[in-house]
Amino acid sequence: MYEFKYHRPSTVRQAANLLIKNEDAKLIAGGHTLVPVMKQRLAAPPHIIDLSHIEGVDGIEMKGRSLVIGALAKHAAVAASPIVGEAIPALAELAGLIGDPAVRHKGTIGGSLANNDPTADYPAAVMALGATITTNKRKLKPEEFFQGLFTTALEADEIITKVSFPVPKKAAYIKFRNQASRYALVGVFVARLPSGVRVTVTGAGSDGVFRVEEFEAALQKRFSPKALDGLTVPAEGLNSDLHGSAEYRAHLIGVLAKRAVEAANNRA
Amino acid sequence: MTVSPRNGTRTKRVHMAKISMIVNGNPVTGNIDPRTLLVQFLRENLRLTGTHVGCDTSQCGACVVHLDGKAVKSCTTLAVMADGHEVKTIEGLAADGAPLHPMQEAFREHHGLQCGFCTPGMIMTAVDLVHRKGHDLSDHLIREELEGNLCRCTGYQNIVASIAAGAKAMAKSDLA
C-alpha cells in the first residue's frame, strides 16, 4: 500500500469539503473494496477520508411508504433488520448473501453503490425497486446513477447519504454465486411494484446492472414463471471469463428469473 | 522533506496518526503510519501474534478478530479506523493461566484443528456466530457461517463438530 494522508471528518459536510480541498481523495466507509485494491496497489489515493466516524447516517426506517436506509448501514444490519425483513424481505436476504459474515460487518450499502462493481448485489435491488439515491447535493434515480463499469453519476465532491426503496408488492433476489469469491456470477432481482414489474440483472453485464424489458413485459401480463417460457436474453454484451461464458450467463439469467418469480410468489 | 539516514535519499515525511483503543480489555496507544493494517498493529506493535495473516486478501479468515464485539477481518481493516473502538483477539478470550474459553476447549476436545493456522480465526468467527445465532446451531448453519474461514487440513468436519459443542458449552459458561 502506498502512503496516504488520513482525514476523519465528523459530518458529511466536512467530508465534502475535504473532497473539494484534496484532489484525488478517496472516501472510505467499510473499506472492504478500497483496502484490498490499495494493498494490490491498483489504487493509490494520496488522501483517505474516513466516513466511518460520522454519526446518524446508518439508520434504517420506514418513511411513509418507503424504506430508507442510511448510506453507512452495514450489510449485516440490513440483513438482520426486522424493519427490512418486514417491508422488503428480498432486500434483507440480498444483504445476507454479500461476502461472508465478517465482510458484512464492515461493508456498507453506500460504499457498494458508489463502487458500482458489475458483480455487486445492491445495484440489482436499487434498480429493480426504482430506489432513489440521495446525496449531499441531490436525488438520483438508478437509471441516472449507474453509468457503467465502476462508474456512477457521483461528482467529485458528492457523497451518498441514503437510499429510499419503494415497498414492492412482491420481490425476490436469486443469486448464482461464484463458488470461490461469492460474488454474483449472475444475480436476478424481480420486483412487482404498483408502477409495474421490473427485472434486473447483476454479475452478467459488461456495463454492470441492467434491466430485461422483454421479461418485464411478459411478467406484467402474467406474474408467473411460465410467462418467461421461451424467452431468452442475447449473449451479446455479457461477460465471458474463466468462470462462465456469455452464453452460459445468458442461460442463467432465464433460469434465475423464473426462480425469482417463483420465490416472490411463494413469499406472498 | 527529510534525509533518510540509511541511504541518504530524500523521502517525504510520513503523516503519522495517533491512535488509542481497548485491546482485550487493556487501553493501548500507538503512533502509526495510517496505512498500518489492524492485524499489523496487533501483531507487530502489540506482539499479539495469535491473530494470523493467511491470504491477506480478506478471504481466508485467519485474521478474524472482534471489533466492538463483531467478527471482522483485521487484514482488511486499517488500524486508524479502529481508533477509539474495542478489539478482542484470540488472546483475550480467556485469561492467562485460566481454563480455556469453552470454544477453545471444544476445538481441543473435538480435534477441530490439525496444523492450527486457521484456528484463531475459526474460533473468533465461531464465538461471534454464537453471539448472533445462539447456542443451538445446526451443522448446515455452521457451514454456511464458515463461508469466510478457510481450513486446508481438516475438511471442516471436526471444526463443525467443535463449534456445535462449543456453542452449547458457552451457554453454561461465564466467558462471553
Describe this structure in words.
Chain A is α+β, with helices and mostly antiparallel strands. Chain A has two domains: 5-50, Uridine Diphospho-n-acetylenolpyruvylglucosamine Reductase, domain 2 (2-Layer Sandwich); 60-267, Uridine Diphospho-n-acetylenolpyruvylglucosamine Reductase, domain 3 (2-Layer Sandwich). Helices cover 33% and strands 22% of the residues of chain A. Chain A has eleven helices and twelve strands. In chain A, the strands form three sheets. In chain A, strands 4-5-8-6-7 form a five-stranded antiparallel sheet. The radius of gyration of chain A is 18 Å and the shape is globular. The relative contact order of chain A is 0.12. The mean pLDDT of chain A is 96. By secondary structure, chain B is an alpha+beta fold. Chain B has two domains: 14-92, Beta-grasp domain (Ubiquitin-like (UB roll), Roll); 102-171, Orthogonal Bundle (DNA polymerase, domain 1), CATH 1.10.150. In chain B, strands 4-3-7-5-6 form a five-stranded mixed sheet, with helices on both faces. A two-stranded antiparallel ribbon of chain B has the order 1-2. The radius of gyration of chain B is 18 Å and the shape is globular. Chain B starts with a strand and ends in a 5-residue tail after the last helix. The A-B interface holds A 1-6, 8, 28, 31-32, 35-36, 38-39, 48, 50, 52-53, 76, 80, 99-103, 105-106, 181-182 and B 12, 14-15, 17, 33-35, 37, 56-59, 61, 64, 67, 70-73, 76-78, 80-81, 84, 125, 128-129, 132, 145, 147-149.
